[in-house]
Amino acid sequence: MSRSQQRYQKREKEKQKLQHRQEKAEKMQERKANTQKGKSLDDMLAYLDENGNIISAPPAPENNTPSQEGKQDGVPK
Prior knowledge:
Helices cover 47% and strands 5% of the residues. It has helices at 2-33, 41-44, and strands at 47-48, 54-55. It is rod-shaped and about 105 Å long.
């Protein structure tokens, strides 16, 4: 009687191992299909808006450049 139980347990254990391997292979294929590797730099960048929120698009450029009137070239003597 114990021999038949051992055979049954061995078969069940093999079934579980096979099922686990199949699940693992499926997960691996899914990860390969949904990989993030190889994306361009623009897709990976995140930007902050004026309120400090994270956004995916670059903010619009503002015209807050200082005027050239007050600048001098070189060091004053």
